[in-house]
Write a structure and sequence with these properties.
The protein has 382 residues and is mostly helical. The chain has 15 helices and 4 strands. The protein has a two-stranded antiparallel ribbon. The two termini are 39 Å apart. The mean pLDDT is 93. It binds zinc ion (2 copies). The site of one zinc ion (ZN) has 5 residues, from helix 11.
């Protein structure tokens, strides 16, 4: 049951301040920059300055605002907290406290009137409309934990000072030092802000419209590889909505998630710890449950003489698959426990348990491939 107390629906307005800011950065970034580059070219120092801000600013949002502060998927040192608050402010996406409050509401009340970027109100609304044509009343009750931090509160209360210092003054000052203040303003400020804005906005619009529902077929959140590519790994949004406490969004080794890799590097450096990870068994369970649901829905929507027997067979396959997954999980836990308390004498036992775990995994994989070919047969029946 969703709580609706203390909630005021967004008010329809025309937010001229946001419209002017978006217009100015977009015009400077997308029109001013090409003209500048045409006349003056691009020096290596300008490119490096742009690349630096194009890396640290979005990472401060994805790694800092999103995964560290809004979802508490890991803990970070004071230095790391300062860096993400400083460079996060440079993205001009509001204070970390406000961003996190709205983002927590997005997860908790997704696709309802209380979701600040509710996709049910349309693609444009979820992308940018909610920021320029609507006024949202923020209820900070859901970020009391973050409000205990003096640094978070300082950034919140003096947000404009932080944002202008890190997002405009610092890059332009470096621009002066390297002899290209105008280039710095156009590239490292305007172009960077425009690109990062639309990257972030795509998560709320594109990833709630296009892509694959891998773990929850009824969620509007989707996994979209291209969105992941332009957002430092945030595009695996179906996974993220299903498992928001995981510090990873791209959970497979080959999925593009530089934010996850950066968190792992910070952990190695001692700047991040207590990285929260969902077990591979819970992930697999969610994935096969989603596929099973898709097949069940397909069976419901299609009439066929073999329907009843197909439904029965699907259930048998699914039950067996879950059973084998459970056996694999238990033997894996047994093995993990054993290696934690391993003594010289128990080496033979370790070998036997490892064998048992490998066998359980093979049996699960065999059942999974059988189940997949059964589904192919199922969908082939038109
Ligand atoms: Zn979302
Ligand atoms: Zn999130």
């Amino acid at each position: 049951m969703l709580a609706i107390e203390n909630f005021e629906a967004p008010q329809r307005i025309t937010n001229w301040r946001n419209i002017s800011f978006f217009a100015l950065t977009t015009i400077l970034g997308l029109i001013g920059t090409p003209i500048y580059l045409y006349h003056f070219g691009l020096s290596l120092s300008e490119f490096l300055l742009f690349a630096f801000f194009m890396t640290v600013t979005p990472l401060s949002i994805t790694l800092g605002y999103h995964r560290m502060l809004a979802h508490l998927t890991f803990k970070g040192s004071t230095l790391l907290q300062f860096l993400v608050l400083f460079f996060g402010a440079a993205a001009f996406e509001q204070s970390a406290l406000k961003w996190s409050s709205q983002h927590r509401d997005h997860h908790r009340f997704v696709d309802t009137s209380r979701d600040p970027y509710n996709i049910k109100r349309g693609f444009f609304y979820a992308h940018i409309g909610w920021l320029i044509f609507w006024k949202h009343k923020i209820n900070y009750d859901n970020v009391k934990d973050l409000a205990k931090s003096k640094m978070v509160m300082h950034q919140h209360e003096h947000y404009r000072l932080w944002a202008i210092t890190s997002g405009v003054l610092l890059p332009v000052f470096i621009g002066f030092l390297i002899g290209h203040p105008l280039g710095a303003l156009l590239l490292a400020v305007a172009t960077r802000i425009t690109l990062i804005y639309h990257g972030t906005f795509c998560i709320n619009s594109v990833c709630h419209t296009f892509g694959k529902a891998t773990y929850d077929i009824y969620s509007t959140a989707k996994d979209h590889w291209f969105a992941a590519l332009i957002t430092y790994g945030e595009g695996y949004h179906n996974y993220h909505h299903h498992f928001p406490s995981d510090y990873r969004n791209g959970v497979r080794w080959y999925q593009w998630d530089p934010t996850k890799w950066m968190i792992a590097v910070l952990a190695k450096m001692g700047l991040a710890w207590e990285l929260r990870k969902v077990s591979q068994f819970r992930i697999l369970h969610a994935k096969v449950a989603a596929e099973n649901q898709r097949a069940c829905d397909w069976l419901k929507a299609n009439s066929h003489s073999k329907l009843e027997i197909m439904r029965h067979n699907l259930k048998l396959h699914y039950d067996q698959l879950n059973q084998r997954l459970l056996v694999w999980e238990r033997s894996s836990n047994e093995y993990q426990n054993l290696i934690r308390h391993l003594s010289e004498q128990s080496k033979a036992l370790k070998k036997a348990t490892l064998e048992k775990m490998k066998q359980a995994k093979t049996q699960f994989e065999e059942t999974l491939s059988g189940w997949k070919s059964f589904q192919l047969q199922l969908f082939a029946i038109a």
